[in-house]
Amino acid sequence: MNTETIVHPKLHHYGLITADLDPMVEWYRKVLGMTVNHRSKIPAIARMTHHGPPFSALAFISNDEMDHRIVFFEIPKATTDPDRRHHNGLQHVAFECTTIDDLLGTYVRLKNLGIPLLWAADHGPGISIYYEDPDRNVVEMFFYNYGSPWTATEYLRTGQAGRPAQIDPEKLVEARKAGASPWEIHQRAMAGEFVPAKPYDPATSF
């Protein structure tokens, strides 16, 4: 048994509190392809006991081979903090797309479903599109420009990261349809070619 050296356990899942389970489950199904692997209600009598849980229902969801990636805990009286960006807490979660076409195709699919983006940017290591779920949790989907997390890590170590180039995904979709490679799209994005008509102010949600 190793009791001295740090091991590197992998992130497996996270839990979210919500006041309304149904719209959250449906949003994550539409956006990320999550399916419910277990859902149950907690009887009111159990919640009224001294050691009972504070939530009324829960759902375990996943979009891969893991039994769950997110757990929702329904607390009917829970509220969204309107001033949460000034408080400690989870800032956002991110999901990696295998290709830029998966990322941009998902953007188009969600737009057609009436699900708006929050903002989008090329951060250097990758291109990211951000959304808000029904409880205003920020969810990022991204694609590695360098094709490898190892190369993206080396990029971060150069000190060049931290100055994202805001992008309009519509312009990226058109560039891709016109034959631009993923690397060309990255270069053009960083050069400012795909700036949105109305730049997003991250201070409104981040």
In the CATH hierarchy, the third-tier topology of the largest domain is known as Signal recognition particle alu RNA binding heterodimer, srp9/1
Q: Quickly give the structural class.
A: alpha+beta
As a whole number of angstroms, the C-alpha radius of gyration is 20 Å
Q: What's the shape?
A: globular
Helix run count: 6
Q: How far do the termini sit from each other? A: 42 Å
Mean pLDDT: 90
Q: Quick one: how many beta strands?
A: 9
Number of domains: 2
- Write the H/E string, N to C: EHEHEEEHEEEHEHH
Would you state the CATH class of the largest domain?
Answer: Alpha Beta
Low-pLDDT sequence parts: none
Going across the biggest sheet, name each strand in turn. Answer: 5-8-7-6-9
Give the % helix: 25-40%
Strand content: 15-25%
CATH architectural label of the largest domain: 2-Layer Sandwich
Query: Largest sheet at a glance?
Result: 5 strands, mixed
Brief write-up:
This protein has helices at 21-32, 44-47, 100-112, 149-157, 169-177, 182-190, and strands at residues 14-18, 35-41, 57-62, 70-74, 93-96, 119-122, 126-132, 138-144, 165-166. It is an alpha+beta fold. 21% of the residues are buried.
How is this structure best described in words?
With 206 residues, the chain is an alpha+beta fold. The protein folds into two domains: 61 residues, 2-Layer Sandwich (glyoxalase-related enzyme like fold), CATH 3.30.1900; 114 residues, Signal recognition particle alu RNA binding heterodimer, srp9/1 (2-Layer Sandwich). The protein contains six helices and nine strands. It has a five-stranded mixed beta sheet. The chain has a four-stranded mixed beta sheet with strand order 1-4-3-2, with helices on one face. Helix 3 packs across helix 5.
